[in-house]
Design brief:
Layout: H1 6-13, H2 18-24, H3 26-35, H4 39-56, H5 64-75, H6 82-94, H7 101-112, H8 122-129, H9 133-144, H10 162-180
Helix pairs in contact: 1-3, 1-4, 2-3, 4-5, 5-7, 7-10, 8-10
């Protein structure tokens, strides 16, 4: 006898994105709408998604930024214990200083919300919905402080001038932090 819940399986497979579910598997989306899972159930499913994302965070060292971004996306739904999960994320981010520069820059961008969507970034989430702002600032200060030069440029679109991209990412982080942060900090 199979006890699997197809709605839960679809929700987890699409990492809670009903947009992607509707676009890529209309039948799964219709089942989701019909079941209409409540916030408590969705929170449990989001915890399962987060467990999987944390387990896979370092599977591909070149794309740690992608899992980090996915974790921030799930946390922004705010259906889970944010202090617990954000603390766990900050534990991982403390270890990210050894990542390559591309990963670190994209993580900085994710934390600031990729400029146009700062309300979906990690800084907004942590400053407004947790008591972990001070810890985030310490982690981000370690993560953002590295040196780029012309030798670091990558031969791909968006990475031809890594110095500017790093500077923009740091400046966006500082700008967003100043907008949402509650601590009176003299330096960032």
């Amino acid at each position: 006898m199979n006890n699997a819940d197809p709605v839960k399986e679809s929700y987890v497979r699409f990492q809670g994105s009903t947009f992607h579910m509707a676009r890529e598997d209309r039948a799964a989306y219709e089942r989701y709408l019909q079941q209409n899972p409540g916030e408590d159930l969705l929170g449990k499913w989001d915890e399962e998604i987060l467990e999987g994302l944390f387990a896979a965070l370092r599977e591909d060292e070149e794309n740690v930024w992608l899992r980090h971004n996915q974790i921030i996306t799930v946390l922004n739904r705010r259906r889970v214990d944010l202090n617990y999960w954000v603390s766990r994320l900050l534990d991982e981010m403390e270890k990210m200083t050894e990542l390559d520069k591309k990963n670190k820059i994209i993580i900085l961008e994710t934390m600031s919300g990729h400029n146009s969507r700062e309300d979906l970034g990690g800084v907004h989430l942590i400053c407004l919905y947790t008591d972990l702002e001070e810890r985030m600032v310490k982690v981000m200060n370690e993560l953002k402080n590295f040196y780029c030069d012309d030798y670091d440029n990558l031969n791909t679109i968006g990475w031809n001038n890594i110095i500017d991209r790093h500077l923009c990412a740091v400046n966006d982080y500082v700008r967003v932090y100043k907008k949402y942060g509650k601590l009176n900090l003299s330096t960032l």
